[in-house]
Predict the structure.
Amino acid sequence: MSELPDYDPSAFPPFAVTVDIVVLTIVDDRLQVVLIERGAPPFQGALAIPGGFVRIDEDLDTAATRELIEETGLDYLPQHLEQFGVYGQPGRDPRMRVVSVGYVAFLPEIPIPEAGTDAADAYLVAVDDALTDPGGLAFDHHVILTDAVEHARRSLESATTATAFLPPVFTVTELRGVYETVWGTSLDPGNFQKKVIDSEGFVIATGELRQGPRGRPAELYRAGPAETIDPPIRR
Amino acid sequence: MSELPDYDPSAFPPFAVTVDIVVLTIVDDRLQVVLIERGAPPFQGALAIPGGFVRIDEDLDTAATRELIEETGLDYLPQHLEQFGVYGQPGRDPRMRVVSVGYVAFLPEIPIPEAGTDAADAYLVAVDDALTDPGGLAFDHHVILTDAVEHARRSLESATTATAFLPPVFTVTELRGVYETVWGTSLDPGNFQKKVIDSEGFVIATGELRQGPRGRPAELYRAGPAETIDPPIRR
DNA sequence: ACAATAGTGTCTCTCAGACAGTATCGT
DNA sequence: ACGATACTGTCTGAGAGACACTATTGT
């Protein structure tokens, strides 16, 4: 079958469609992901990326937003929720044919509830730890998490998504910390400062200062209107 | 419903899953796309991106490859077939809930059959023409084609995908023509030459020459092993 | 010789990276 | 005063773009 006209609507192959949400945040200078513990087979007791069925009258993005709010108890609409891939290998769910749309969300360090609205327990796990054992996650979630992190790393290069990891007001040093944590590199503070300030619309100075425990007070910024960084910041 | 354990496999929302293949090629220095004419409602007589149902035991990439071969009569495996997005808006197909996975393929100028294995007529249409009228394509295929072209444009910047538009052996001028056609810009011949030759593993000199209708003969190259271009070629 | 196409050399400007230097705080 | 952190200035080298120049063909 290769085109729509000649099909029987009652005989199409039965698929389930789900969204999986990779919620990334930075805590203790480590990139962390929200994982839930599965309470029933298959993969009972294993950690999994939160997700759920798309409702029959619901848009994919809407389903992703709904699931994110259900799982994290978020009380506002996430700014950065991006689709990064589709996973439909037959047998990836042993019970039936499931096609899953992968989304990645960037959140500031906020209180993530230990359990969502459903009975499952939710945890914040360092990405490095979650990926050490290739079979440590349920289903094909090891691949999905790997792809999500790579998507996030690339996104920081030419998009202004890094600010989504931070509260509304932040310092340049904190922004640099996001890059260093997500990329796993260290960046020159002086050069990063100039690059960010020169990049039109990336950050906006508030005029306020914040005093840290030591040293000169840092100027406070908020996210600017720009969505891309040109030229990009290189890893 | 937010997690898999507590669902009834016989009561999941019934979705159909399809793949849509945006086949891009360059003919007459214009970026062209393979479109088929729909023979039945809805959108009877309108042009549409070729696609079809994913079989119940078939991988998404396999389904895309199969559809591509069915639609174009290709007798080899395409090197560049990339997933670029998922389209699942309720109502995008008026008959039922269809989630479609978008793939884009790059082909050299080869004889595209005017009709595939099914009864539908197939055409090669300039992308600019196909996108002039926002309602000119069936379903949401205007959006899908727009996204596919943007994916292709970005792909040329930092990946070596441009060679997929050319035969196995080609000149640097022909490669530059791919960039100019896909990007809709004009590039400096001298600078492009140096950039491509200096880019490790992008192209490999064959030592052969090809004489055009006029001028100095051009050296012939074939695609190299590199998959990325670093630093990228900027638009 | 001349036009046309292929390819090289040269100059300039931008920008990333290295790193020294200055500013402003707490102790 | 001193250390720590924030920020600025300066130098250098890589690379993109503009463009002149050379190379090799057909007419």
The beta strands of chain B are 16-27, 30-37, 47-48, 51-53, 81-87, 98-106, 122-126, 169-170, 203-210, 218-223. The CA atoms of residues 200 and 225 of chain B lie 9 Å apart.
